[in-house]
Amino acid sequence: MLPFRDRNPSGCVPYVTWAVIIANVLAFAAFYPLGTDASVARIYHDWGLIPDRFLRGEGLVTPLTAMFVHGGWIHLALNMLFLRVFGDNLEAELGSLRFGLFYLACGIVAFALQVLAEPSSPVAIAGASGAVAGVMGGYLLMFPRARVEMLLWYVVGLRVVAVPAWALLGAWFVVQVAGGMTTPADGGVAFWAHVGGFLAGVALCSRTWRLRGGRIFWRRFGGVPPHPTAQVVIPVVRRRGAAPLPPAQPNGLFRR
């Protein structure tokens, strides 16, 4: 299942969200596609966050630079997709400047928890996943009942389904905690960075949530972003030979 949009677009241009996406794409295009294995490995070593090296006082800038280093097109694309889906409404609530600082703070906290979990690790941690997890955590607090549309592959085809944010993001968080508790230290995913970023996002958005009225804010807007619901048509793609459905109706080397 792959989320690709929510049903309450912010209605304004999320300048910082798009700026972060463009910066990540440009950084990736600058070193990865044409680089040799040795040069790419060197990028991870120099700009990724290596816990053992960081705790020895080296590479102190890497908590920031590592957010813009990705290990492949899929790694980059998934992170930027999640940022695009959940970033615009949160940026609209926080304001662009605060959202930018929020994003960086979540990324730093994410890396900090991963370093605390594995302080002697010589493996570089890289990617925007922790910062994006913070955006997801903030979105969950602010808009728990927002409907998020997902592509779902099932036995006879592909269709779009809408699920509430609390179910999607809550399940995602549980998976990250479980992964952190069961994955060996040399695993390929920095689960504790995801957990740290998500919790940081919830914590850093809590003041804004309270200023909006807390539960009153939820009741006023039904737990969804305070923007009009987009009118959408849910498509279904059937495998060849499957029985047709009636027309759709509109309804509301490193670790990543």
Automatic annotation (TrEMBL):
Q: Kindly report the protein's main subcellular placement as a broad class.
A: membrane
Pfam families xref list: Rhomboid
Extent of the signal sequence? none
Any one GO CC term of this protein is: membrane
InterPro entries attached to this UniProt entry: Peptidase_S54_rhomboid_dom, Rhomboid-like_sf
Question: What is the recorded name of this protein?
Answer: Rhomboid family intramembrane serine protease
Q: Any transmembrane segments, and where? A: 12-32, 64-87, 99-117, 123-144, 151-175, 187-205
Q: What biological process terms from GO does the record include? A: proteolysis
The Swiss-Prot or TrEMBL record annotates one GO molecular function as: serine-type endopeptidase activity
Q: Where in the cell is it found?
A: Membrane
Q: Does the keyword Isomerase apply?
A: no
Alphabetically ordered keywords of this record: Cell inner membrane, Cell membrane, Hydrolase, Membrane, Protease, Transmembrane, Transmembrane helix
